[in-house]
Amino acid sequence: MQNVVEFKQSKLRPIQWVTGMFVVIFHIMAVWALFTFSWANLAAGLIVWWIAGSWGIGMGYHRLLTHGGYKAPKWLEYFLTICGTLGLQSGSLQWVTTHRIHHAFTETDRDPHTPREGTFWAHMGWILKGTAQDQPEEMIKRYAPDLLKDKFHVISSKYFWVTSIVVGAVLFLIGGWSMVLWGIFLRQVFGWHSTWLVNSATHLWGTRRFDTHDDSRNNGLIAALTFGEGWHNNHHANPRSAKHGLTWYEFDPNWLQIRFLEKIGLIQKVHAYDLKKESQSVQAFRKAA
Length: 289
Ligand SMILES: [Zn+2]
Ligand SMILES: [Zn+2]
Prior knowledge:
Elements: H1 17-33, H2 39-66, H3 74-85, H4 92-104, H5 119-129, H6 137-143, H7 145-148, H8 151-158, H9 162-175, H10 177-200, H11 220-225, H12 232-237, H13 253-263, H14 275-288
This protein binds zinc ion (2 copies).
């Protein structure tokens, strides 16, 4: 039968030894980085963190590629994708497939990382023994056919680790080994845990504005670590909206940058959930009923 894919229970999959080895090595290097502090190294870490975490993962992989929250010219889509590969969270094909499955089956046994199977599992267990970097072809065909049609996404997904080596080499030329420790290793470990907290913490702790069918929460601390991705209950309620922070106090740097790109005419068809308008129309509907 066409279009039917078999879901294997993530926990039954074999341990991802190679991924696990890299995760351990990066953590060791990150601790080493702490002994080589300099303001230049810190600046390098922050800049790469911004490019990989905000432009790449948040604005690129998540809000553009997964949810189509706005329409960008191809060159910008590709640029954001390249930035995303720098986050070392696999290529766009695998990331988008995994995340669309998360939205389609949140908190069920098909969700790749629900905390209902354990907090550690939702945080990083699923990376070490789950589906994360290892989506089979038929899953990608089913959940990311739009990206699979595009050769750029196919090739950049295969070689997603190359950008880290190139950026690492540039940092080495600028500031030596200690700058690589900060800009690649420490920044990477910080970026990983911040993203993983969206899967673990924002499905456990925080407030719920919307009564969604999942456990998603709005968590300001995680939002601060992830450029606005922590307003996760808002996001699960309105996945297509490129705007996750819905009030003035829900600070959402990814949205501010998307709004800026729209203002200067670089992107179009921006989907933005408007809390005021929606609640007014709900009230009007109730009055009329
Ligand atoms: Zn979620
Ligand atoms: Zn999402």
